[in-house]
Structure formats: C-alpha cells, structure tokens
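Summary of Year 1 activities. Much of the first year was spent building the evaluation harness for sequence design. The harness presents a backbone, in tokenized form, and records the residue chosen at every position. We chose the following record to illustrate the format because it has been used consistently in internal testing since the harness was completed.
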C-alpha cells in the first residue's frame, strides 16, 4: 500500500500531471460549477420573473381597486356639495317624493359623467334628519333605519364630514346575500362645518371588487383577501383548491412581509404564491388586508426539469471533450520538454547538442534555441575564465613584488628624517613627516572606513608637501563640527578632489589658492562641500562629468584625476542616491558636493563591508 502511495506521489510531481491537475482544478471544475450554478439558478430566475409579472399584474389590479375606492369616496362630494340638495333635506316642508326625484336627477347626471363610471355598480342611500330616505334602488317600502345603528355609520356622524369605511360587511339590502364594501359620510349644515343634517352611505358589491382584483390575472389563477389575523374576507377559487390549512401555512410564512413571493404545493401541483398588502385607509376592523395570488407553476417546473436534463447531458459531454483535449495538449507540450530535459541532464562541455528541434516557431522551439545558445555561451565563458585566471595570476605575482616598494620608501624616508634632525633641517623633517603620514595612511588596511577627521588630516599633510614644493601657494580652511569629524566614510575620497582644485584651479597670476571644506547633516544625509576660488570649471566639463557618470564611458581628463572613480566608488558602496555633484561659482572657482550617508561608530556592524 505504501509502495502505491509513493508511486502516486512521484507521478504527481511530474510537470505534465501537475499541469493536468492544475487545469482540471482551475478551469474544468470551475466551468462545471458555473454550468451547474446556471442550471440551478434558472428555476429561481424563472420564478422571480414570473413573480415579477404576476405582482405587476396584480399591482395594476391594486391600483384599480384603490382608484375604485377613491372614486367612491369622491362620489360623496357630488351629493355633499350640491347646494339644492342641501337646501331640500334641510326643508321639512318639501315632500320626500320631490326630494327623491331630485336625488334621482343627481344619480342620472353621475351616470353620464366620465369621472364616475362606477355609479351603476354602486348602491347609494341618503338619510336626512326628518326620517326621509332616498336611494338608487327600490327599497320596496322596507325600513332601512337600522343602518343608522351600525357602529361604522354612527362613527361617521360623530366624525362630522370624515369618511368611515366598512370593508366586506354583510349585505344590508334586504333580499341579497352578497357582501359589500361600504362607506358612510355625514352631511353638515355648512358643507364642511355645522350640525349634521344627513348621512349618505355608498356601497360596492364583492363581485365587482373580485373582478377588479382578477382583471390582470392569468387563466386558472386563484386569489384570496385576508385580514391580519388570517380571516378570509374574499376568495376567487371556483374549484376550492386551496385548503384553509394551506392558506394558514402560507400566511404564517409571510406575516411580517409587505409583498413578495414563495412556492407551495396545492392539490399535488406546484404553485407560485405572490402577495401584497393593501395600503391604508382600506382596512377591515382596523386591520390591513393582504392579497394572496396563486399562479400555476407546474408547467414551468416541467420545462425547467427538461432543460436541466438536457443541460446535464451537455455538461457531461463538454467536460469529457475538455479532459480529452487537455490530455492531448499536455502530451504535446511535455514530450519535447522531456527530450530537452534529457539533453540538459547529460550535458557536458564536450558534448554536442543533437535531437532537439531548434527550427520550431513556437515557445518550445525558442526554448530549444535558448538552450543551444546557452551551451555556446557557457563554452565561451569557460574560455574567458581561463584567460582571466591567467591574467589574475600574473597580477597577483606583480602586486606581491610591488608591495615591497611602499615599505622600502617608508623605511628610507625614516632614515633621511633622522639625518635631517641631526643636521637641524626642520623643514625637511616636517615634509618627511607629512609624507610618512600619507604613506602610513595609504598602507593601513585595518578597516575600510576612516573618520572624516582622519581624511582631513591626510589632506593637511598632502597640502603641506605641496606648499613646500610650490612656496605656500595653497591655503586650506576647514569648517566642520566635531560631530561631523567623528563620522565614518571611505578612505581617499576628499584628497583627489583637493588635488584637482590645486592642479586644475591654480592660477599662476595669483599668489595663492584657497580651498574650503565645510558641511552639515541634512535629512539624514551628510553633505560635504570642497570649494576653491581657482580658475573654475566650465559648463562643458560639468556636462562631460555627468555624461561619464551616466554612460560609464572612459573618464575624460577634463573632469579631473580620479573624480569619476570617486563618484562611482561612493555609489557602489553606499547606493545610487549618493555621490558627487559639480558646479561652478558665479565669479570664479569650483564647488564639489559630496552626498554621503551618516555613519557613526556605534551604528556600523562588524559584518558590514564598505571596501570598494
């Protein structure tokens, strides 16, 4: 078992197997997941779109219901604001018959009015304070005073002019069993204020409400109107398919939602239930009404299942084709790489490259050509290394011989110094001391870094020797604080610049040249300036120096002895943001700016190497 496990692991380590698994995991499997997700989302999408359509349709019905109820409420104004009708019902001397005729005239005018097309479907009755009753239907000499005893009618009289609704109340017209949506409003003496002089009741039958509710429904749809406590006020379900238990279950799931949709089973079939809440003031016993709309969803489910089955088949075929293409592609890719790998494993300097196709135009051909070119480069490098090794050996031999000369010169100068002391030639002694210090400074290899103070002392010794030779023609001024003098820097970076100032800046018409060394710390950088008042440097020389810095070309003599070498060594040692900057002064002279890092003794690690 362990052997099979190790064998399986060794195969997984192969590039071809890992590439195959990578593409399988990162491409084929996500693609499969996307296909499955699309298939699973399709039913939800269809459900949502169907629900949106149903809700849009029943929302139109809702608007129609709201408009119808608003029309009924507005219908009262045709009676309340009729001046003649108000005068008639306030006058007890006018007979009930005459008032009833005028009442009928108002009804007839409303029949032909475009704004009240629902008059023919409404029941209107008016009571005045003199026990006279007027209606748009035949009362058959029945007494309808009992309507004035209903709570909602009494409430309208108490509210003096405000409409009070009675939703889905039992029929009050004798001989009818349907339910009505009714409203009552009190007549006031001054239309909007004063004593109550009458009460009008306008009603619309349940059937009209049902027709409006189902006007935009699909064929076979069912609708229910319920109160907040689950009481069914209106149903449009001729076959009584929705049981009370099913309706209660649906209502419990959406009790806190104003609108939406869900799926349920009714009579073994799938139905999409869309619901919405009728807004206030259309309430029943102070409870808001909720409409449930049942739409047959079984056909949609059957279509989705058929499409899902077809998609499953297509997904399986696509995955199979992808895996086959993937396997063939990996084999085509790996075979030439395996051949190249074999060539590389057996490669030696003396071997010839054979068997690989360097003429291919694809990436494999480029890889083969690169390997062939690499073989030629390696052979050339080995030849170059052999040549450089010979040169280094010769240089090492010559440098060992040359090391004798500085020590021999130092010892010889020491002997001459003692002879000068014996004879009292103090100036010779000082010159020899200065030269000896310079030699000692140059031969010291204890540390690649020195202090700024040591570098300045070396410059003083150098200038002393120059003044002995040329008659005190150079003056040195150093303005550096003790903190800066104790900082560390590279050896021999200031002396070549001072030497350039003397050699290139000295004017024979002047008695002396002044060299100033000053500086300060700014933004964690050490800025040191070497400034002279000599002949100055031309703009061409500055540009030549900058070009030499950028292009790494051979240093021009115009830029000064060793100046580019100093700049390049600083950049290599400390970083590209450090180095030298040249500029000429306005009147005469040259200024060289050193930008160096701030290196203190305590911050330098023993492991750091700053040797250029």
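For this record, the design step produced the sequence shown next.
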């Amino acid at each position: 078992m362990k052997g099979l496990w190790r064998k399986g692991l060794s195969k997984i380590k192969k590039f071809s197997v890992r590439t195959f698994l990578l593409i399988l995991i990162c491409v084929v499997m996500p693609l499969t997941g996307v296909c499955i997700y699309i298939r699973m989302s399709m039913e939800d999408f269809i459900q949502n779109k169907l629900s949106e359509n149903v809700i849009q349709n029943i929302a139109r019905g809702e608007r129609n219901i709201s408009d119808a109820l608003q029309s009924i409420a507005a219908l009262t104004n045709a009676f309340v604001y009729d001046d003649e009708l108000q005068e008639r019902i306030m006058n007890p001397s006018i007979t009930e018959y005459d008032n009833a005729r005028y009442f009928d005239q108002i009804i007839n005018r409303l029949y032909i009015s475009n704004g009240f097309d629902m008059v023919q479907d409404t029941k209107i009755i008016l009571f005045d304070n003199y026990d006279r009753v007027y209606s748009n239907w035949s009362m058959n000499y029945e007494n309808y005073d009992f309507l004035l005893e209903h709570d909602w009618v009494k409430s309208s009289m108490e509210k003096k002019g405000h409409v009070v609704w009675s939703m889905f109340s039992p029929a009050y017209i004798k001989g009818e069993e349907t339910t009505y949506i009714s409203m009552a409003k009190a007549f006031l003496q001054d239309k909007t204020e004063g004593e109550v002089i009458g009460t009008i009741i306008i009603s619309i039958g349940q059937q009209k409400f049902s027709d409006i509710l189902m006007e935009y429904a699909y064929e076979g749809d069912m609708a229910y109107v319920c109160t907040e406590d689950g009481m069914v006020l209106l149903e449009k379900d001729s076959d009584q398919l929705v049981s009370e238990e099913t309706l209660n279950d649906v209502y419990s799931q959406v009790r806190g939602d104003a609108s939406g949709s869900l799926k349920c089973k009714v009579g073994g079939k799938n139905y999409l239930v869309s619901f919405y809440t009728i807004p206030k003031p259309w309430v029943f016993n102070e409870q808001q009404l909720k409409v449930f709309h049942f739409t047959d969803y079984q056909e949609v489910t059957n279509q989705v299942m058929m499409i899902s089955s077809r998609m499953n088949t297509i997904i399986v075929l696509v995955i199979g084709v992808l895996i086959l293409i993937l396997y063939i592609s990996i084999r085509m890719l790996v075979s030439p790489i395996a051949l190249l790998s074999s060539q590389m494993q057996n490669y030696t300097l003396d071997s010839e490259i054979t068997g690989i196709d360097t003429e291919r135009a694809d990436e494999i051909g480029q890889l083969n050509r690169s390997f062939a070119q690499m073989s030629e480069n390696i052979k050339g490098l080995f030849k170059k290394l052999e040549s450089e090794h010979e040169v280094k050996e010769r240089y090492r031999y010559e440098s060992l011989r040359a090391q004798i000369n500085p020590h021999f010169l130092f010892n010889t100068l020491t002997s001459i110094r003692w002879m000068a002391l014996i004879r009292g030639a103090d100036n010779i002694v000082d010159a020899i001391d200065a030269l000896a210090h310079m030699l000692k400074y140059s031969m010291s290899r204890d540390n690649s870094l020195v202090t700024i103070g040591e570098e300045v002392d070396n410059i003083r010794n150098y200038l002393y020797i120059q003044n002995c030779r040329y008659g005190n023609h150079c003056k040195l001024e150093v303005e550096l604080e003790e903190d800066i003098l104790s900082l560390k820097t590279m050896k021999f970076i200031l002396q070549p610049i001072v030497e350039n100032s003397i050699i290139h800046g000295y004017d024979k018409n002047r008695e002396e040249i002044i060299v100033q060394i000053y500086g300060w710390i700014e933004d964690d950088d050490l800025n040191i300036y070497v400034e002279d008042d000599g002949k100055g440097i031309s703009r061409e020389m500055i540009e030549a120096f900058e070009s030499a810095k950028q292009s790494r070309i051979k240093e021009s003599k115009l830029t000064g002895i060793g100046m580019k070498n100093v700049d390049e060594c600083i950049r290599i040692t400390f970083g590209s943001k450090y180095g030298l900057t040249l500029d000429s002064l306005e009147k005469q002279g040259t200024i060289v700016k050193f930008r160096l890092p701030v290196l203190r003794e305590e911050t330098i690690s023993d492991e750091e190497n700053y040797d250029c």
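Residues 477-603 form a domain with the Heat Shock Protein 90 fold (CATH 3.30.565.10). Quantitative recovery figures across the full test set are reported in Table 2.
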